[in-house]
Amino acid sequence: MNYQKLDAALATALNDVQSLEESNLGVFIHTEPILDSAASAVLERLGVSGVTSGKDIFTATLSPNAISQLSEQSWVKYLKRSQQLGLVNKRIGTRRLGV
Hints:
By secondary structure, the chain is of the alpha+beta class. It has helices at about 10-15, 35-45, 65-70; strands at about 25-30, 55-60, 75-80.
């Protein structure tokens, strides 16, 4: 695995996984803008959808093994962890103010 292509959040998540084959990590895949047919085939084989020429950012839910394979590809610039974001102004247990 080429850890230089992984962001810190993804590297940390990879250390915490139980199964190397289970696809449970959401990632952004940043690639070179022009992919050849072999690169597109690799992405599609790993379950990445929407692979088209000229596109350079893809999203997928991948296994640690798939992430390792992608990190070794010369046309992959870097891999970044995708995380569920929460609402900033969400309030728990607030009471209503009457006017």
